[in-house]
Every structure is written in structure tokens, then in C-alpha cells.
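An instance as discussed:

___
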Amino acid sequence: MSPEHFDVLIVGAGLSGIGAACHLQAECPGKRYVILEGRDGIGGTWDLFRYPGIRSDSDMYTLGYSFKPWTQPKAIADGHSILDYIRETAREHDVDRHIRFGHRVTQLSWSSTNARWTVEAQRGSGGETVRFTCSFVFMCSGYYSYESGYTPQFAGAEQFKGRIVHPQQWTRDIDYAGKRVIVIGSGATAVTLVPEMARTAAHVTMLQRSPTYIVSRPAQDGVANWLRRRLPAKLAYGMVRWKNVLLGMLFYQLARRRPEAMKKMIHKGLEKELGADYDIATHFSPRYNPWDQRLCLVPDSDLFAALRKGSASVVTDHIDTFTDQGIRLKSGKELPADLIVTATGLNLVPLGGAQVSVDGTPVDLSKTVGYKGMMYSGIPNLASAIGYTNASWTLKCDLTCEYVCRLLNYMDRHGFRQCTPRRPDPSMAEQPWIDFSSGYVQRSLDKFPRQGAKAPWRLHQNYVLDLLALRAGSVNDGVLQFVKISHGDHGAHGGRSKE
């Protein structure tokens, strides 16, 4: 029996995958598609993570889809509200009927002879292998492993009599009310967990090796709520979206070009929150410049409120060993705990961990160069939805979806069956895929593609530049190689186009 065939196969039914399907239906209505989702529900990250206080650290006017206005009062939304938004989008656009749950994609094999992919997936708890074929693969599986988060090897961990849990493996039976909690880490997950757990815990200690830049902003966007009461939803949403995009870009550029001024601004905000007597230099003054790593956002100063109240505290030190009653630090200080939460990061994996081969040859993705932040040199008919590191994830994913639809329509109009980014200049300098010093990035960079020193191989991390390039730039740019297959005749076609 031949595998079931689709024009487009989308991997992942999270924020990106549902958005990709909506764009595909709207802009390529003749395409037959399927979504393969390894888990049993829609939502991706927002269905996977269940830890206390789970929320976005990006505003929903930019994290939301370009085509579906966010209408709730809170711009910094909790995870449940975001999950409802994704599921509602899938229902409204009738996307959910295209999803095959419990299908974890493991292998992608391209055949130039047939101009199609053979996709293998493990189905259900029994791990039965099923196969599909498709003309184009759109990877919307994110960038990290859903199997487990990253936890370092802590000396003496086996001695601890309480429970140790990574936020990615949070379960409902974890009880922290009235208990002493240590949260190891100082990133986005830690600063979310600490104030939420501090509401009912006896005390929560955020234990960090080194500080992170943390800023506060209101959970509600006053301008957005004012506009939404007076203007049609789509118009208000679009205006606020652009406001927040431009403010985010301004903040980022200021941080990169005038880091000392940005440090002073952040420090002044911390003094206002915590008082001049708080040891900001030790606990909130990183050794790196702002945006060398992603800034952490706390809504309505919730973390700082918990610190002021005394229900939470920050300790900056290195771990010597776990003990039966808690953690002993290098300084000799001991922190007692009933529960330890290791908010120590993610395990990054490209393409959801799927193995890729082209015409029988396995592809080492780290040897490829990214094209426009979505395709890969030498790999035909495959794109990935990867968001920004310095702005909302969905801003870039929306543009990627639009471009993929443009590409598919262009290929249909001209009778092309195959498109492959071909690197024309082998001497072009290469750089890491992401210029970020965060530990979770640095641990995994060697698995990811490289980026080039110039367009279209360079990541802009700039929404306006990407908007111009992906919406208005030529599809046939002299870098994408198109192949037309007709009656068994295979021939490469190049040349520029106005499209």
C-alpha cells in the first residue's frame, strides 16, 4: 500500500504549526496538507509546560497571529490563555481536522527523482512506524526537545530527601504550599516560578550562579485597551502591534549601541523597585551587556514585590553539593529546602530531532548554512518556522509562513517541482546560527546550521528588514535553484524574476 501523499506536511501543532496551516489555507487554498503532532494535544510549548505561573514574556500583540487580534485585557498573558487562543484559532479556521496526533516525526528522506519527501513517524505508544509522502515539508516543531529539559549533574543530588523536579516535567501532584523551595536558575522560567510559588510556599529562594538583567512592565497595555474600546478590533490590534514592534526594536538597538546607558536605565528601575539599600550589584548586575542574553520580563513587578515582602529571596553563589536537607554552597552557607526546582534550561535540537537525508545521503545540519532564517543550503523543499531571539517568536514565524506560501505559489505558476538554496560563494565567512551567550544556546550551537556574513544567508533579527525582504523581495533571487520536472525530464532553470 502506497503512503498517503500531501502537497505540504507540517510538523508540529503548536503556535507555529497552527499559524502555518491558517496561512496555507488562506494563501494556497488548493494545497492538500496534514499536520503531524507528536503529542496528544494542540498547543506545543503552551500545552507542554504546566509549572506554576507559566506565562509569556512577550506581549500578545506581537506574540499573537497577525490575522487574529488579541482581545483580552492582559498583554502579558498566562499560559492557559495563550493555549485557549491557539485552540480557538484552530477551531475557527477548521485546522484541527487536519491534525494527526501521536505522530512523532523521526526521518525525512528526499528523492530528487520523484521530487518528494518520504516522512517516517512513530505512531502511538507502541511506536509503530508510519510513512507519508509530500512535496514540501514545513517544520514547525520549535527548537528544543520535548522529551526532557537540561539538568546539570549536581553533586550529592541522591542524598536530598525532598523532591527534585525540572519545570518541563512538572506534574499536578507537586505540593509546595507551606514548604521551603529552592529554584535553581535566573532565566525566564525561574523569574516566573519564584513569585507564583511565593504566594503559598513558606519561602522561595532563587539560587543563581550569576545575575540576569530583569525589567518590569505592566501586564496590561493601557494604550491597547484604550484603542480597543474605540476602534474595530483588527485596526486597534494592528496599531498596537506596530507600536510594540517599534518600541522593542528601539529598546534593542539602544542596548546594543549604548550598553552603558541601558545598564544605568535598568539599574535605576531596580533601585526604584527594591530600594537603594538592596545589593543590586551582586544579584542583578550581570557581567555581560544587555541583550548579549535575552532580558527577563516580570509583569507588574511581581518578582520584586515578593522580594520586598520577604516571601522570596535571591542568593548568588555556586553549589558545592546537595545535602539531605537542602544545598550547601561554595561559600559554606547552607540553604534548607523541602523542594528543589531545577530551572536550568532546555535541550536544544534542530528540526525536532528528525534525521534528514537527501537522495540517500544523510545530512549533517551543522554543515549547512541557513537561507533567510528558514531554509538550508542543499536541502530542497523544506522550511522551518523559527522565531526571533530579540522579539516575539510569532513575528518572524508569520513572515516565514507568508514567504513559504509565496514560494509555493511561485513554483506552481512556473511549473517548478523543486527549490533548493545553493550557496554560490564557498569562501563566504560563516557565523554561529545565533549570537547569544546563554548557556542553553552555547551547549547546542554545534548541532545547528551556520549563518553567512551577508544576505540572504544572514539572520537580521530585525522585523522591518525581514518584512521588506520576505514580503517584497524576489522569490527567484539567483540563490534558490529551481527544477522543473515534466514527463520524466529533469532540468534546472534559473534566471531572475520580478516576483
